[in-house]
Amino acid sequence: MEVSETSFCGIEFEIKKNGFSNVSYILIHGDEETARMLLTEHIKENQGRAFFIKSKEREVPLGPTIVDPNRIFSKGGATKALKKFKPTWEQRKLELLLAELDDSRNEFLFNLFPSEGGLLIALHNNFRGYNVNNELENSQLYSLKKEQNPRDFIICTDLRDYKKLNKGPYNVVLQNVIEEKNNGSLSWAALENGVRYINIEVRLGWLSQQRKMLKYVEDVLRR
Fold first, then answer.
1. Which partner from 38, 39, 49, 178 sits 20 to 30 angstroms from 27, CA to CA?
2. Mean pLDDT of successive 10-residue stretches along the chain, which has 223 residues
3. Domain 2-221: CATH architecture, name and number where available
4. CA distance 48 to 21
5. Domain residue extents for the chain
């Protein structure tokens, strides 16, 4: 196991690399401990690169404020995120930080994204009522399963991946049309760059469920 570090505009990540693979994984919210536990165990047994944000909090320091690190992957998203906890910015200082983010973002994504045709898998946990129904308005296709909790679901950005995954037991949505005014999440950056992206979203604490969903995704998409 090789361990290294990288950063996105000062937001630090630890990278654990196991062998050679065109799959990358990421934990981007530090307070989602179930996802952290799963990715820690998964990368020991599976080849690929796993990016772990070096924080235990959901929001992280950035300049003179804090931000959700999964809302700064577009200029519009970053602007909104920077103003959330600091609504009164001097415009010049805001523009300087946004420009710094633009430069750092490109370098971070170049490092994070897998090789052409590869897969980027994000692991998330929810604990505030967020569920698959919140994503339907932004989705082009969806497959909901009555026997599954709506807080456990998969987001994908590739139609071919969706067609494979929707045949299984889990809730799946497809988001493969770029929204001009998107929220700045990593999924939109992946879509914009032609990277196959999967988000496995599960209730906080349900490690066995997220483990099963990750195994299902990899069994289906890595055949």
1. 178
2. 96 97 97 98 97 97 97 96 96 97 96 95 94 96 97 98 97 93 93 96 98 97 78
3. 3-Layer(aba) Sandwich (3.40)
4. 5
5. 2-221
